[in-house]
């Protein structure tokens, strides 16, 4: 009898708890691949962008960028209540799942700036500045009486890509969070400023990107929602730059 009770408790913890528990690298492989394919223009046969004089960063001269000329976004899973937009300084994302289905919906986007470095090979500081506002919620409709589980997560990172080597040169986490419970709701409203070191090489093109993603998963009588899209909820990069 004790063994039976123990098995019931374990099963209850599984279905109402952390079925979708995430590792610290909260972004899924599908989103990671989608962003990388977009950044490196996999399958894109268009001609390379032309670099204006203002897009060249010269050694020893700090550069500030307020206008972002790179943007892309997408969704993975069912399209219902899952949206993505990226343009200018803004990223708007929403992912949601409703009962009674077993569903995983994902939404991603990025904005940023591309430049070419001219000078001797050397380290430099890359900085990003902006804000984010949003909400995440999970609801297990039967409060654990019937099987069901939910999980929702958000990831915002700043990345620098070396377009000549086809590699990510650096990455810094701005926000990473997930919730999985019978009921929970979190709100986010913060500014950020962060910087990190990148080794620049003469003649190489670089992309400074703010990348964001949200994921919602649900099984059975459960609802999950990540909303960085409704009303004034948005993820922004208002400025980025290079300092020596």
Layout: helices, strands, pairs:
Blueprint: H1 2-16, H2 29-39, E1 56-58, E2 63-65, E3 70-76, E4 83-87, E5 90-97, E6 103-118, E7 122-140, E8 148-162, E9 167-179, E10 183-200, E11 205-220, E12 222-228, E13 235-243
Provide a short characterization of the protein structure.
The protein has 244 residues and is mainly beta. It has helices spanning 2-16, 29-39; strands spanning 56-58, 63-65, 70-76, 83-87, 90-97, 103-118, 122-140, 148-162, 167-179, 183-200, 205-220, 222-228, 235-243. Mean pLDDT is 85; it is low at 1-24.
Explain this structure.
- This protein is mainly beta.
- The chain has one domain.
- It contains two helices and 13 strands, in the order ααβββββββββββββ.
- The strands form two sheets. Strands 2, 4, 5, 7, 10, 12 and 13 form a seven-stranded antiparallel sheet that branches. Strands 1, 3, 6, 8, 9 and 11 form a six-stranded mixed sheet that branches.
- The radius of gyration is 21 Å and the shape is elongated.
- It starts with a helix and ends with a strand.
- Residues 1-24 have low confidence and may be disordered.
């Amino acid at each position: 009898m004790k063994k039976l009770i123990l098995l019931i408790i374990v099963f209850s913890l599984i279905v109402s708890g952390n079925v979708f528990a995430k590792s610290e690298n909260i972004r899924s492989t599908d989103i990671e691949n989608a962003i990388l394919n977009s950044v490196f223009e996999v399958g894109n046969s268009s001609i390379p962008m032309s670099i204006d004089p203002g897009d060249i960063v010269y050694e020893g001269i700090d550069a500030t960028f307020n206008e972002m000329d790179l943007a892309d976004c997408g969704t993975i899973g069912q399209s219902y209540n899952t949206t993505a937009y990226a343009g200018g300084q803004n990223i708007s994302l929403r992912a949601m799942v409703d009962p009674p289905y077993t569903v995983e919906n994902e939404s991603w986007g990025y904005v940023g700036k591309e430049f070419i470095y001219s000078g001797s090979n050397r380290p430099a500081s890359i900085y990003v500045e902006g804000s984010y506002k949003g909400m995440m919620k999970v609801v297990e409709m039967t409060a654990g009486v019937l099987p069901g589980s939910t999980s929702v997560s958000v990831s915002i990172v700043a990345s620098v890509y070396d377009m000549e080597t086809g590699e990510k040169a650096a990455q810094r986490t701005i926000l990473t969070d997930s919730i999985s419970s019978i009921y929970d709701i979190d709100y986010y409203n913060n500014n950020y400023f962060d910087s990190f070191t990148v080794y620049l090489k003469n003649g190489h093109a670089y992309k400074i990107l703010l990348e964001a993603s949200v994921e919602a998963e649900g099984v059975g009588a459960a609802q999950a929602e990540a909303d960085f899209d409704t009303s004034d909820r948005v993820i922004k990069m208002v400025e980025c730059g290079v300092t020596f």
